[in-house]
Structures are given as C-alpha cells and as structure tokens.
Design brief:
The complex is a heterodimer of chains A (514) and B (166).
Chain A lengths: L16 H13 L9 H22 L4 H13 L2 H31 L8 H23 L4 H15 L20 H25 L12 H17 L21 H4 L1 H7 L2 H21 L9 E2 L9 H5 L5 E5 L7 E5 L9 H5 L16 E2 L5 H12 L8 E6 L13 E6 L8 H8 L4 E6 L10 H9 L16 E5 L5 H17 L7
Parallel strand pairs in A: 5-6, 5-7, 7-8
Antiparallel strand pairs in A: 1-4, 2-3
Chain B lengths: L3 H20 L12 E10 L8 E2 L2 H5 L9 E2 L7 E7 L2 E8 L10 E10 L1 E10 L9 E9 L4 E7 L4 E4 L1
C-alpha cells in the first residue's frame, strides 16, 4: 500500500470555471504574466499609474470652480498629446482598477480564500472597495461638467437620506453659483486624501502575507500600460458640457465602472441603495466568520530544537511565525506561532534546518513541526515507501495533496509520499531518498500560480535551485530530480511527468547512480 | 510573424481595453425622459414652534441653578412642514416633512426630482409650516415655459420672497 494519504482525500479534484479560465490564459501569457493570476499586483500597478498621471493632472489643474473645467478642456484639446492622453489614461486606469478589484474579490471568493488565516486579508479588503469608489466618484467631480454635477447631486441625495446633516447636502449643488471655490477645494482635498487612505488600506491589506506580490511581472506591467495608452489614444476621454444647474441633458455618457450607483439609486431609492450597500458590506465582513469550518491544527515549536534562525519566519506565507526572545533561559531567539494565522501548510517545517532526515536520532524532532504530520512521521513514511523501490528507474514521488491526485502514480517501481504542501518538504529528504535507493525523485506540486498556500511551489523551486535556504546540496544529481507542477484535474500530466523521469533515469549513465 | 500566444495576448488586452472604453461611456444614461424637463423641489425650512415661550414664575426660577435662570422657557419642538406641488391642476407632490433632530427642532428638509413634459404649464406650489393651521401657509402660482432638459428649482424661504423658482 502506498504511503500516501495524510488525512482525507485531496479536497480539490476538479478545477472550477475560474481555474479553467486561468489555465487557458496561462497558455498565452504564462503564469507570471497571466492577468487573472496577478490581479492584486495589477491593482497596485494601476494605483501607481493613477498616482503618476494624477500628479501631472493636478499640477496643471485649476482648482477653482470656474477654472477647473477650462483647465481640463485645455489639457484635453490644446495639449492632447500629453495632458489629454494622461487624462484618458487616468480615467481608464481608474476603470481598470475597479474591474481588477472586483475580479480579485471574485477570484478569492471562488477559491474560498476568506476563512481563518485569510480572514484578515479578506476583511481588510472590504473598506478598500468603499475607498476606491469614494476616490473615483470624487475624481469625476473635478472635471465639473454636467456629468460631474449629476454625480455630485446624486451622491448628496444619497447621503441626505441618512438625515445626518442640519442642512441637506443637495442644496450645495442646486442654484447657480451655489458651488464655491471652498467647496471645490474640498473636492480636490478629498481626491488627494481618499486615495492616500486607499493606499494605506492596501498596505494593511497585504500585511498578513509573506512575500506579498505587489508588483506584476515586467511583461504584464508593460502590456497593461500599453493597453491603457492604446485606449487613451483610440478613444480620448472628453468632458460633457460645463456644469449648469439649470440644465440637465437628456442623455449622459456615464462611466459605469465608477458611477453605476447613481442610476441604481434613481431606479430604486436612496434608502434602498443604502440597504443594498450595508447588506453587501456586512455580508462580506461576516463571510469569514460564517464559513469558518473546522479549526486546523497549527504548527508547534520545539523549543529545544529551535535555534532561532528565522527561516520559518521568512518562508511562512501568512506571517504566522515570529521570532521572540527565548523562554528557556538561553540567549537568542526562538520561533513563535500565532495560531490564528497558521494555515498548517507545513512550509515552516520544510524551512527548518533541523528537519533533516539524516539526523541519527530515533525520534526526529524538528524545530517547528505540524502535530498531525511531523517530520519524523514523514521520514517514517519515506522509509516505508523506499522499501518498495529498487532499480535505477524507480521513482519516489513527493506529492502535494492539493495538486493533481497522485494515487495512480503509485505502482510497480514507484511510491508516493503525500505532503500537505510541497513547500513542507525539506530538500534533504530528496537527497535522503536518492541515497536510500530511489532512482529518482518526482516532486509533484500545484500548478504555478495555483499553490493552495501561495508560496509552496515557488519556495521549493528556490530551495532546489540553491537560491534559498535550506537548499538541496550541490552534489545531488539534478538529473534524477524532477519538479512537476500539475494542478487539480491534471492527473494525466502528472503521469506523463513520471514517465518522462523514468525514461530519463533509464538513459542515465551508471555512475550517476553510484 | 507573431506566435499564437502573442496573438492571444493581444486579443486579451484588446478585449479588456474595449471593455474599459465601452463601459466608461456606454450605454448612455437618460436622467430624464427625452423631451422632459425636471422639477427640482428643494426645501429646507424650520416649521413654527409648536408651543409658545412661557415666562417662568419666580418660584420656578428660584428652583434653578443661578446660571440657568433664563426668564423664558421655549419648547423646542417644531411643526412639520407640508409641501404641495401641482402642475396644471395635477398633484405632483404632497408631502409632510418632519423636523430633523432628536428633539424635532431642526429643519424640515425635502428634495424631490420630478420629470415633467416640456412646454407651458401652470405651476402651483404651497408650503405650510404650521400644521395646527392646515389651511394656512404660503401659496404661489407660476406660469412657466419649460424647455426640454431644463431644470426648474423650487425653493422656499420666508426671508427670500417665500416660494421661489429658478
């Protein structure tokens, strides 16, 4: 019987529609430049595009109510080649930011990434949606055209429904000359302050992530910038007629990404829109608590075996491990696990230098370990699997339980050892397997960009390449080690990877197995 | 010659760009039906106080702290304000608006947008700020000629000619 199962069957067996779409785009872009796999990083890029274009527009902007429209018109028409293009890029980047944000939200929701250790990132993202819309809507007002007046009046009407102010906000926008320079200065202030608050929120949003990706790959960044520039040149953004409270055009070209709430409010009522927004906000915030599920085990530190090296801290994908002063009277540091952040992925155990199976101790205890799948148990399972292997084409498969199902890989000449995440495998286990009889080692992890614990596949690759500690020793023949990135549903590819490794092993000269 | 992957990338970026350009201005929104004008009723007015000020007796004053001995006690509660708007004899709006504030002593505020057909109309606006006298209040009639897309604002301010349109 293969030493495979860690606990229940792999939770993901068939990719959903979103994953299928991501994989389709992988073929065109590759995972690193796939926009659907990098929505968060894309959001950061778009924010910086907005900031850069916004700074130029602000420098050239007349912040008086009478001069605002004219200054934007001048930029758009007389200086279309720079100011006009930047204005259009600014607008389209804002629209793209909205689209990317909602796609990001939908992706994380579809993948169930809001529970437990993900709850902070999920909940901290909810106010960002508010801030995004507040920034965008106020930005629309700065043009001070008919569209801006319509939006300002609709927003004021929405807030007036709360009945909080002594005087209705709508009255600021009704009469001719009712909007003064001071109120317009407030708009400008808000359009600077709200995005700064948004940036602060985005910073907080990624604080519980180890190695957060806040910058897309160069290819994706250049492609996105080129797309925004092309849109700006092909369809420059133009103002509507100047704001005039005595006139309402029969038709308005609304930016539906940002201003969709106004027609929605007029189709229902301000109160209905408040209820909708409040329910959506509360539902999003409550989702992690409503869908908590069973509490996972959490990694535990063995004080006696932890030397405070900090590798587990550096590799933890959810900032669940910190270094604190030793509690055993010795000088130095020791790892501490924050249980509520721990995903029980075991990546910390894979990073621990004491997780090497070569230690000649009866009970192998790592500095940090998963209580339900200790490194000792991993070594025991490996030893049992190795007893079934013999011959230069025999293969030991270390398989992530969230990747393609590995059951079928176990058979004559191959055995499978299951892992919670590929990143929980200390590289020394690969060397151990090769020295103890395996002809080759196949590391089966999630498809690139699909790692259930974010970093498992990447960290394993870096460790094998010697770019990250703990690394696979240089004298281990790389020709006998193969990394296969096969996601759920890609069992056929996993089997093909095994076949290819076997063929390669069979072609190996004899001294490679010495 | 570009590869299939490059063409697919180009198509994806083009599709996203087209989505941005399209939804940033289409479909067009019609805030009022074509050919209509908009009546914009915006009232922010404090109704009359429901109870008159009362001079405190010497006994009542003596019972108060020295710094609280104002001669009059004026209940703060105000009357709701009733606003009626009719066009060519057809009622468009008839609402009674409660004063704002926990003590119901603030402004009664109302903002309504009412699309109406363009053209010549007889506009009748009535504002009553004392519901103890329901037939009292200010009434004005206007002959208006509304263009399509015109916004006619109706306001009320006793200090500013009473009912005013602009």
């Amino acid at each position: 019987m293969p030493a495979h199962a860690i606990d229940a069957a792999p939770p993901v067996t068939k990719p959903g529609l979103w994953v299928a779409l991501e994989r389709a785009l992988d073929r065109a872009f590759g995972p690193a430049a796939n926009p659907l796999r990098n929505l968060g990083a894309l959001g950061f890029l778009l924010f910086w595009v907005l900031a850069a274009s916004g700074i130029y527009l602000y420098v050239r902007f007349d912040t008086s109510v009478d001069g605002a429209y004219a200054s934007i018109e001048h930029l758009s028409r007389a200086e279309w080649y720079l100011g006009g293009v930047l204005r259009s890029v600014h607008r389209y980047a804002a629209d793209a930011f909205v689209a990317v944000t909602f796609a990001h939200l939908a992706r994380e929701w579809a993948a169930g990434r809001f529970r437990r250790f993900r709850a902070f990132s999920w909940i901290s993202g909810v106010p960002l949606v508010w801030l995004m819309y507040a920034s965008g809507i106020v930005g629309c007002w700065l043009v001070w055209d008919q569209r801006a007046l319509f939006s300002a009046l609709a927003t004021a009407q929405w807030f007036d429904a709360l009945g909080l102010g002594a005087e209705p906000m709508t009255r600021n926008f009704i009469g001719v000359g009712s909007v003064g320079n001071r109120l317009f200065s407030l708009f400008v202030f808000l359009h600077v302050g709200l995005p700064l608050a948004l940036l602060a929120g985005m910073w907080a949003h990624v604080q519980r992530l180890g190695q957060p990706r806040t910058a897309p790959s160069r290819a994706l960044a250049l492609g996105t910038l080129a797309m925004l520039l092309a849109a700006a040149l092909a369809s420059p953004v133009q103002s509507a007629a100047p704001a005039d409270p005595r006139h309402l055009p029969a038709m308005l070209e609304l930016d539906w990404f940002v201003l969709f709430a106004h027609p929605l409010m007029y189709a229902t009522s301000p109160e209905a829109l408040w209820v909708l927004v409040a329910v959506a906000t509360v539902a999003l915030i409550a989702l992690p608590r409503a869908a908590r599920g069973a509490a996972p085990v959490t990694a535990q530190v063995s004080r006696a075996d932890c030397n405070g090296c900090g590798r587990c801290v550096a590799d933890c994908p959810y900032q669940a491990v910190l270094l604190g002063p030793r509690s055993d009277g010795r000088r130095g540091w020791q790892a501490e696990v924050l249980a509520e952040r721990c995903a029980a992925c075991g990546i910390c155990a894979g990073a621990c230098p004491s997780s090497t199976p070569f230690r000649s101790v009866r009970e192998l205890v790592s500095g940090i370990d998963l209580p339900d799948l200790k490194v000792h148990e991993l070594r025991r399972r490996l030893a049992r699997a190795l007893r079934r292997l013999a011959g230069r084409a025999s293969v030991l498969v270390f398989a992530c339980e969230r990747a393609a199902r590995s059951d079928a890989l176990a058979g004559p000449g191959s055995a499978v050892v299951g892992l919670r995440c590929l990143g929980m495998l200390p590289p020394s286990f690969v060397e151990y397997a090769l020295r103890r009889g395996a002809g080759g080692v196949l590391l089966l992890g999630c498809r690139e960009g699909e790692c259930a614990y974010r970093l498992g596949t990447d960290l394993t690759g870096a460790r094998l390449a010697g770019a990250r500690e703990p690394h696979l020793r240089a004298n281990v023949p790389r020709s006998r080690v193969r990394v296969a990135a096969c996601g759920a549903g890609e069992e056929a590819q996993a089997a093909a990877e095994l076949v290819q490794l076997r063929r390669a092993l069979a072609r190996e000269p004899d001294n490679a197995h010495a | 010659m570009p590869s299939g992957a490059s063409l697919a990338q180009l198509a994806t970026y083009a599709a996203f760009g087209a989505l941005l350009v399209t939804l940033s201005r289409h479909p067009a929104y019609h805030p009022v039906p074509a050919g209509d004008a908009l009546l914009q009723v915006s009232i922010a007015h404090a109704g009359v106080r429901l109870h008159p000020c009362r001079r405190l007796s010497a006994q009542e004053l003596a019972a108060r702290a020295p710094n609280m001995r104002a001669a009059f006690k004026c209940p703060r509660r105000r009357s709701p304000v009733r606003v009626s708007v009719a066009l060519d004899g057809r009622a468009l709006l008839d609402e009674t608006v409660a004063p704002s504030g926990f003590a119901r002593d603030g402004l009664s505020t109302l903002y309504r947008r009412i699309p109406v057909a363009a053209g010549a109309h007889l506009l009748r606006v009535q504002v009553g700020d004392d519901l103890r006298a329901p037939h009292a209040g200010v009434l004005r009639e206007f002959e208006v000629l509304l263009d399509a897309g015109q916004v006619l604002s109706i306001d009320f301010g006793p200090q500013r000619d009473g009912i005013a349109i602009s």
